[in-house]
Amino acid sequence: MKTTPLVALALSAACLALPATANAAGRPAKSENQTSGVGEFWIGYNFLSEDNVPGPIDDGYPGLGGAFRFNIPAGGALNFQVDLQAESGFVSDTNKNYTGSVLSGGHLSWRNPSEWLVGGFAGVGNGFNANDETATAWLLGAEGQYYLSDWTLYGQLGYMDAEEANSGTPDAFRNAWFGRGVARFFLDSNVKLQGEVSYASGENDIAADDMDIWGWGLRYERTMHDLDANLFVAYDGNRYASDETSTLTRSATEHTIKLGLSFNFGIEGQKYIDRQGATLDLPMVTRWSAYGVDVVN
Known about the structure:
Elements: H1 3-24, E1 36-51, E2 60-73, E3 78-89, E4 98-112, E5 116-129, E6 134-147, E7 151-164, E8 174-188, E9 191-204, E10 209-224, E11 229-243, E12 249-265, H2 270-276, H3 285-295
Antiparallel strand pairs: 1-2, 1-12, 2-3, 3-4, 4-5, 5-6, 6-7, 7-8, 8-9, 9-10, 10-11, 11-12
């Protein structure tokens, strides 16, 4: 569990170093064959409510996180992208809360920047909770994007599985199919508004209880030329519901407010990166699995 803040802080430090690296190499150029990437870090606050979950639960706590995405054109329409993302929550007086995740993965895609992208993704990582329990999760799926003049429509369908790593038992949210939809609207080439919704349905606990997860989010991001960076404000929500018996459902709903900075290298411009660069990402399935280990279990 204690490795999660270190990874999140390391990602944040790496992101802060990106502007200096980019400036040392000169202003990024626009090229459809340009290797490029995006790094980001954020600080935030989490609000948690629960129903039929035995305590103690910390219902409000700060958090931080970071992500790094690197896109490599592989010739023609083929692109390869690698991802690393981490987050941490700083809870107190509890042995139930989710406390963080580390997730890595990759995407292989074919892209026509004026019309569409199709491809697949895979990833693996760990999610943690306050009781020093670790859920190891992996995911695999297909994804696609459709480009309109000022819109990008992004969809993912996939499967994920997990286990409680300390015991090697299936005591986590697992054996689940999920879907995710994202819509991005570009107010201009350097200002982006994004909304998303996701749903996952699978099993939880050794007894294979039914568990469903709904997720939703909003994000506003704009380029700050004086900082050579992008400022974003985001909101993420998730609801986790596990059917312990035919008459008892344990549930938790979280709301997270984030303020962060992102940095580009290789290419620049919110809309141009969306069509030419590291435009793909992964749902935080490690968070889902960790919630199944002990929070709504």
